[in-house]
Design brief:
heterodimer; A: 118 residues; mainly beta; 12 strands; globular; B: 112 residues; 7-stranded mixed beta sheet; 4-stranded antiparallel beta sheet
């Protein structure tokens, strides 16, 4: 079974400082990893994904994430936080095995509230 | 191009009442999903439809039924609502071969 853990319920950072939102995962095959952001009273918006290739993935709004296979982690990062980045962030994983189906069931972490202070 | 739409946006039900949540997409995607979001629990998959004409249970299917009416529409039905079904419900879609899912704006359901 696949699982995702976001060890921090909340992350606080000052505007202009770098931010990191942590995610670790567990899968039996190769992981497909995703980050989503949710603003209040809105649906989830896709930020970025890791499927294969370069371990550093760049996404929307200046966010990037680093895939670390040995640590089974996929932390979300941004070099300089903005107040407008304040939102709820979800990490998700899909376990891909050779011969598996393509419909892509995702397992989500519990979410991390990011607050960026002016 | 509206993407993924959900109706209604808000609903209050009494215990035992029934209702259907509607989801429609105009992106010609094959797969559709229903999730519920509860505080501190992330999103949990209720049902999914890999393609038109097929549906399968997800992680938390009890108390729900679904219908994949056509390629565009995927509805979620609560036959006899319970307070434990108070939640925010999201519909999502993705196209075969792509991995990220695209979400609707959600339906906030309260069961009293």
């Amino acid at each position: 079974a696949q699982s995702v853990a976001q060890p921090e319920d909340q992350v606080n950072v000052a505007e202009g400082n770098p931010l990191t939102v942590k995610c670790t995962y567990s899968v039996s095959g190769n992981p497909y990893l995703f980050w989503y952001v949710q603003y209040p009273n809105r649906g989830l918006q896709f930020l970025l994904k890791y499927i294969t290739g370069d371990n550093l993935v760049k996404g929307s709004y200046g966010f990037e994430a680093e895939f670390n296979k040995s640590q089974t982690s996929f932390h979300l990062k941004k070099p300089s936080a903005l107040v407008s980045d304040s939102a709820l962030y979800f990490c998700a994983v899909r376990d891909f095995k050779a011969g598996g189906t393509s419909y892509g069931k995702l397992t989500f972490g519990q979410g991390t509230i990011l607050t960026v202070h002016p | 191009n509206a993407g993924v739409t959900q109706t209604p946006k808000f609903q209050v039900l009494k215990t035992g009442q029934s209702m259907t949540l509607q989801c429609a997409q105009d992106m010609n995607h094959n797969s559709m999903y229903w999730y519920r979001q509860d505080p501190g629990m992330g999103l949990r998959l209720i049902y999914y439809s890999a393609s038109e004409g097929t549906t399968d249970k997800g992680e938390v299917p009890n108390g729900y039924n679904v219908s994949r009416l056509n390629k565009r529409e995927f509805s979620l039905r609560l036959e006899s609502a319970a307070p434990s079904q108070t939640s925010v419900y999201f519909c999502a879609t993705n196209v075969r071969g792509a991995y990220e899912q695209y979400f609707g704006p959600g339906t906030r359901l309260t069961v009293t």
